[in-house]
Amino acid sequence: MLLRGSPSFSLLSVGNISGEITALTSPAAATAVRFPARNLVVSAAAESNRSLTGVIFEPFEEVKKELSMVPNVPQVSLARQKYTDESEAAINEQINVEYNVSYVYHAMFAYFDRDNVALKGLAKFFKESSEEEREHAEKLMEYQNKRGGKVKLQSILMPLSEFDNAEKGDALHAMELALSLEKLTNEKLLNLHHVAEKNNDVQLQEFVEGEFLGEQVEAIKKISEYVAQLRRVGKGHGVWHFDQMLLGNAV
User: Fold this and answer.
1) Binding positions for Fe cation (predicted)?
2) b/e 148-170 (16+ beta carbons within 10 angstroms → b)
3) Least confident residue range of 71-75, 145-149, 193-197, 224-228
4) What own/partner pairs with CB < 8 Å and gap ≥ 24 does 165-172 have?
């Protein structure tokens, strides 16, 4: 007897053929019919569901891994994903850097606002600089929470309160210190970016680049120009003119 048909055929009748019939009827498996009496085997290999339907992404299958990783305890962040402990620690370190620099700038504001120093333009500049560094720290704190990390504030050192310098004068001395602080902050930000790159955290790299690095280069350029100008004007009347410029007054 010759049996013809497609791979998905079914047997309607076996006639009077004697023997045992064994069939694998699962749609995903191969179909086989065996006739021991005549030692005849007929089989058909079925293709997988994936190749038949053309499906590439199976969300309900692939999401099982993510579901198993959702934390059950309230102390653990639900939003955290591919955010390493090293990145979390680096963000907290940068928060501390920003707060320390803000503290130094605030001390400079207090110094130049004294009645016996009375350089209101410099006082204004350093107060705004202090507020900007604090805003940077808060932005980093918000990012830490967004990624599912924990903000851990660290100790802040007491800054200097006197900025007079017999050779350079207080204005130039303070501005050179500010330039050094901006370069140090930039170096710390580059270290943070390196940590993100090492851990293949593209989102953190983008955050550092977009929010900080460009602005930091601009700040370094501006303060460098202020240092150059103060070196030209000396310690006397020229400092007053420079101070008026920072206030926005025409001189």
Assistant:
1) 98, 133, 136, 182, 216
2) ebeeeeeeeeeeeeebeeeebbb
3) 71-75
4) 168/235, 169/230, 169/234, 169/235, 169/239, 170/111, 170/112, 170/117, 170/119, 171/119, 171/122, 171/230, 171/235, 171/239, 171/242, 171/243, 172/227, 172/230, 172/231, 172/235
182 annotated ligand-binding residue: yes
pLDDT at 23 over 90: no
| 106 annotated to a ligand binding site | no
Q: Is 216 annotated as ligand-binding?
A: yes
Question: Which residue in this structure is represented by tokens 């004007």?
Answer: 233
DSSP annotation of 134: H
Q: Is 194 annotated as a binding residue?
A: no
Q: For 112-122, what is each residue's pLDDT tens digit?
A: 999 999 999 99
